Amino acid sequence: MGDIRQSLLPRDVLSAAKELLYHLDIYICNLVQSGRQPPQVDSKTLELVEEFILHAPKDRNTPTRRMSALQELQLLEIMCSCFQEQSRDTVRQLMFSALFNLQGNQADESRMALLSKLVSMAIAVGRVPILECAATWLQRTHRVYCVRLAQVLVDDYCSMVPGSVPTLQNIHSASPRFCCQFITAVTTLYDLTSEELSPPLELLQMIVSWIQDDPRLVLITFLNTPLSGNQPISSLDVTPLGGLMRWCIKAPLAYRSDKKQALSSGGCESEQEVGPLFSALHLSVLQVLMLLPTILNEKGLYGRLALLQMEALAALVSDLSRLLDQADKHTHLSSADVHTLSQLALDRLAQALQVSMASGALLCSREDLRAICSRLPHNNLLQLVLSGPVMYYNNIHTPPLAFSPHAAHSPITSHPTHPTHPTHPTHPTHPMTPTHPTLPTHPAHTPHAPLATHPSAHPQYPAQPFMTGMPFPYRPSH
Prior knowledge:
This protein is mainly alpha-helical.
């Protein structure tokens, strides 16, 4: 395509860009039809894209070409039509890569600016082919740039234009792949380390509703992507589960760590809305984790692929430890409030760890887990998880152990080193205590005399088994 440069130079900026897109489409179609593997756009074509679409000067003697705001809008409309009319996904993906794959040069800033505007417009006018291409771009690009794109979209639809949130919410049905990648990007962007890095209320409401409507949404990238062992560490996670888990666990302390935040934009009313949202999100994340054993077994990855990394878990525990240390220093919270919020955060951590390990999303031993959590204050449920019969792997290639959540595939057997004693019939059982009703009682022991009953500390929570193939008995705390 290098020979068309001379024909593009006399044209105005919009006409030249439109003509180049037309030739680029033809060039990539011929490239795909040639059967060359892998099909790769040559460097001269990429230089034309930078010069006539991104307007990066070819050399110092070439005057910089600029588009007006109206011309740029017209170019975006032309691009939307170009991708919409091209029926072959391979051609669309190659064209999108030629336009927006980062090259590590000065044109990358122009690429990011044009890409952000194009994706924002595609959301507004429902151009699914562009959203599908953008989903692939988010999978392959350094997370720093993925976060930048997510920030622009949040600003456009949750901050700048009132009432535009429903438009963004429609991507759930328009392009689930893009929606999944968008959730992963925003959970990477908003890490709850400051007020500015806390997700806006509208965004939080949207994500909660998406996952409640379709829990498998957060697994779409994992389900549809061939995974390899050399996944770039700089790319986004293959699922947003880790980021969502981080939100839920840190939220009780992070959202109340600054009195100024509690009083800003909605005050107490906003804070009262946020608590139940994170509680509902926490429950949804646990329910998604409960889907994993069957999925991992079908893929032959149970015990061989960790969707949650130990490094990310260690970073989360470190952040939580810091928040717990800081909580006592905030004078606007009473000591009772601090204790309640701290225990809520630790409860959520314990629940997430238990279900993650039992579902095969987190592969680690109890010893590793105790080492990571050693600095955290005491919490009854966390202590139970660290010392109780949690599923763990000494070697990632071992088969599922006896304490497996999917009893239909792996029958539960008694643990040889932990004989089971009969439960007192009148003693109330805490709802979060993992009981194993199918394990045989030891014949050498006789039942104790019934203990005097005492009022339960939580009478509204009936006793339920923890992991026996029944629905997860977690009740969100507010």
